[in-house]
UniProtKB/TrEMBL annotation:
Family: Belongs to the bacterial solute-binding protein 1 family.
Native source species: Streptomyces flavidovirens
Name used for this protein in its record: Extracellular solute-binding protein
Coiled-coil portions: none
Keywords, in A-Z order: Signal, Transport
Domain of life: Bacteria
PANTHER family for the chain: ARABINOSE-BINDING PROTEIN-RELATED (PTHR43649), OSMOPROTECTIVE COMPOUNDS-BINDING PROTEIN GGTB (PTHR43649:SF29)
Length: 427
């Protein structure tokens, strides 16, 4: 992010704070009023995504008189862990890892959600945990995405080996491949098998899981395409999306609904089950992900902000603050999509789902998730090598066993029927 933009936003927040202080001074006989509380928020959004989210936070400040201090970072896990270990966590942190959140909850670091927020926190994004013998919900989705998605140019016929794959990103590598394997397993074997595997009850070496890896290996193939996958970032070298590349036969991309922010109306999407031969989504199940907000400090301001973020006003403000193709999805609808080019299709898919399943690697303990991502990268070196795959799956089973022996807490469930039936953003 450039410095002038950050300076302008900080100046805006300062003006808001000064205006609030001036109002307090006018309505009080005392000149030494206490300053309004400040809520610290740590989240994943930087650049233009940070700008749009801060418009929501500004709306909260105007409404409540509570100011905020938002820190956006692409190294969210490391930053949050360092702050927690130093005894100075943010009031609210927003992250997508259910596995990390589960560990924080069992460590006693998280505060259970206020009742009003808990009522707005649907599964599979916010499962109920049993911690120290008591059931509670510890995080709530503020933004969600559909993962069972393939993007393509309409009218271009599909060909073998024409998949766009970029395994790297600014924060971590491997997750675009784990998304592929997870989605194939869900579409081929159904939500019951998927949930058993995601929660550690089904071995990595089971026939269903192995077949998902092998199916992805056949789709990607080896040689130049696998090499390109290992050397590319998921958003392309120019940060405009892999489908915008030319001259390499890249025509289709399996990526979450968030990727539409990089594309225009010339690119559309279909569910994975319609794009990959042999996948038949007869169960109406789709993989989803989300950005979850959790309370690390039990303050009045933090509770008020969390309540605001899960309400219609915040969602409407957020949706209107960005361009049509960058509008976020929410766990409930706050309006209609109108004729938005891809938004309506994503919304209809989620609306028609019979089962939604959280991203499996997000739900795994961090150690297993990281091992999964590393295994995906190693697998791409030789996707047709059955001996290599057997070794990788055994390593993942060994890592799972190690965490079981350490009594590492796990998310109890990852699949659920949609609650409310509507997902979306305002027109």
């Amino acid at each position: 992010m450039n410095r002038p933009r950050r300076a302008r936003r900080r100046a805006t927040r300062l003006l808001l704070t000064l205006s609030l202080l001036a109002g307090l001074a006018l309505t009080s006989a005392a000149c030494a009023e206490e300053p309004p509380p400040v809520v610290s928020v740590l989240g994943p959004w930087t650049g233009d995504e940070e700008e749009s989210f801060e418009k929501v936070l500004d709306e909260f400040t105007l409404k409540s008189g509570i100011t905020y201090d938002y820190q956006g970072t692409t190294s969210l896990r490391e930053t949050l862990l360092a702050q927690v270990q130093a005894g100075s966590p943010p009031d609210i942190a927003i992250l997508n890892s259910l596995g990390e959140l589960t560990e924080y909850a069992h460590q006693g670091v998280l505060v259970p959600l206020p009742e009003k927020v808990r009522e707005r926190s649907p599964q599979p994004w916010a499962p109920e945990l049993t911690v120290r013998g008591r059931k509670n919900t510890y995080w709530t989705p503020v933004k969600v995405d559909l993962k069972s998605v393939v993007w393509h140019y309409p009218g271009r016929s599909a060909q073998r080996g024409d998949w766009c794959v970029g395994m790297g990103s600014g924060a971590t590598s491997g997750w675009p491949g784990s998304d592929w394997i997870e989605d194939i397993l869900l579409q081929r074997s159904g939500p019951a098998v998927y949930e058993q595997w995601a929660t550690g009850e089904l071995p990595w070496g089971s026939p269903e899981v192995r077949e998902a890896w092998e199916t992805w290996g056949r789709l990607i193939g080896g040689g130049a395409q696998a090499d390109a996958a290992l050397s590319n970032d998921y958003d392309g070298s120019d940060h405009k999306g892999l489908l915008k590349r030319s001259g390499d036969g890249c025509r289709r991309e399996h990526q979450g609904s968030f990727i539409r922010r990089l594309y225009g109306k010339d690119i559309t999407y279909v569910p994975t089950s319609k794009a990959v031969a042999g996948l038949h989504n007869e169960r109406g199940a789709y993989e989803v992900a989300g950005d979850m907000a959790a309370l690390f400090r039990d303050t009045e301001g933090a509770r008020a902000l969390l309540t605001f973020l899960t309400g219609d006003q915040a969602r409407a403000t957020w949706a209107k603050a960005v361009s049509e193709r960058n509008r976020p999805f929410f766990p409930v609808s706050v309006g209609s999509y109108g004729d938005a080019w891809a938004n309506r299709a994503v919304n209809e898919t989620l609306t028609g789902a019979r089962r939604l399943c959280a991203d499996a690697s997000d739900a795994m303990p961090p150690g297993i998730r990281d091992a999964f991502h590393r295994a995906v990268l190693e697998f791409l070196a030789a996707p047709s090598d059955k001996k290599l795959l057997s070794g990788l799956l055994q390593q993942l089973d060994d890592e799972t066993l190690r965490h079981r022996e350490l009594l590492t807490p796990r998310v109890p469930s990852v699949c659920a029927a949609p609650q409310g039936g509507l997902y979306g953003a305002v027109k």
